[in-house]
Amino acid sequence: MSEFDAIIIGAGHNSLACAAHLLHKGWSVALYEKSDQIGGAAKTMELTQSGFRHDFGAMNLNLFAGSPFHKKYANELNSHGLEFVPTTHCFASAFPDGRWLGVSTDLETTAQRIASFSEKDAAQWKKLIAAFPQEAEHIISVLGSPMSVRAMTAVAWKIWRAKGTVGTLALLRLLVSSPRAWLDANFQSDHVKATLATWGMHLDFAPDIAGGAVFPYLESMANQSFGLVIGKGGADTMTKALGGMITAKGGTITTNAEVAEILTENGKATGVRLADGTHHTARKAVIANIAPGALNRSLLPNGTGNASFDTQTKDFRHAPGSMMIHLALDELPDWSAGEMLKQFAYVHLAPSLADMARTYAQAIDGILPDTPVIVVGQPTALDPSRAPQGKHVLWVQVRVLPAQVSADAKGQIEPAEWDQIKEQYADRVLAIIDSYAPGLTASIRARSVFSPIDLEREDPNLVGGDQICGSHHLSQNFFFRPVPGFARWNTPVNALHLIGAATWPGAGVGAASGFMLAQQLAGA
Predict the structure, then answer these.
(1) What is the pLDDT of residues 117-151, one digit of tens each?
(2) How many other β-carbons are positioned within 10 Å of the β-carbon of residue 267?
(3) First to last CA, the chain
(4) Among candidate residues 310, 333, 237, 331, the one with its CA nearest the CA of residue 492
(5) Pairing of strands 252-254, 228-231
(6) How many CA within 13 A on the CB side of residue 58?
(7) Residue 296 — very low, low, confident or very high, per pLDDT cuts 50/70/90?
(8) 70 dihedral zone (left: phi>0; alpha: psi -120 to 50; beta)
């Protein structure tokens, strides 16, 4: 048996950031990870052929690059190998009518593209970009603060002092608006609206769901203003650097080490029991980076002692699933809409708000969508080191899909378990991409398909293929994430804490929950 100040279950990036800061503050920390490698959904693997490096889940590292954790520890992270690859051509959408729209960091370039659809929209884009620095400061002050009444009161007071009553209400309106409401209020062109609305689909926000407007707003404005970065050689440059920080400070990371039970005594978490039977003691805290439902399934056999908390974590609502298709290619897609699309980090295939709304409704009803939202990541357009010379990888994320299939919108695939139908559905996805980029399928050297169930097998936090570990709808966000009364990473069990995407402030690679909890535990 070993003893530490803190034991952390899981080695996703939030766990790693939490451990690094606690170690900096003089705590002793041990992490136990079920998988054979650290990183959670932010890891890079050779999934197709030797020499082709694929990001399993996260590809975009913007949130980490701009995070308070990175700002504080940038020098140390760099010394342990962290390296970003920036791009000035961030995201684009290709449309069935042969047109495309993309956001690049040069404002005039982006505005000219938007003007080809609507002169008024181009003027409005410039107006929004001009106001963005001040607006972003206020929004980030909300997203980057602990979700407590005291902290939010201080944030609200600061915003009101800066913006006044009308301005504060306008910001609140943005935070609770649906993507469609915000887009309709600001833009005329359906092409412009669709290009921006796709970011809502990354975070479980179909066009008409309240609370979803802020994500298309932040992503599009931030990409225009600051660009986008991915990791040099793969997203695991982030997790490897974090791991290096931890071991350099004397922390321990044990992989292939499944935690079977959280040990408690007199209502306090005291340590963990691993699947191999060994016990490890935590003097100050046990920190679990898990989907909330896992607490009741096995880690706390007798529950927390709080029936309401146990019921709500058991019923924690996950977002629809997704599929990942990793491709090894001879060449990048030859986009019919324009050669320039080869230079973008992301190309979205989501023709309209109506298509996105229909796809979401189909997935919620257990139906395989006829035209899913497809996110085509082109990392080797930015970072050739991820593939052999002259070759490429493609990162294809398919949103949104049901975890359990009851029907097919096109009537072509018989309902069955994902293991039986995933290759058929992947064929549908690739056929759609091929219709925008003819010749893609002929360029594929190898492919690796992860169904929603495969994603959960690889990372248990991705329940049903939910890559954001829980819906971000208003009923499960802010003070309600993961459940009301426990938004400060606390639980009814003393010294037991939850972090990760299921907790405030939610999904993404900003390391926010892990870093903020570590600051809270260690006194900043």
Answers:
(1) 999 999 999 999 999 999 999 999 999 999 999 99
(2) 12
(3) 30
(4) 310
(5) unpaired
(6) 30
(7) confident
(8) alpha
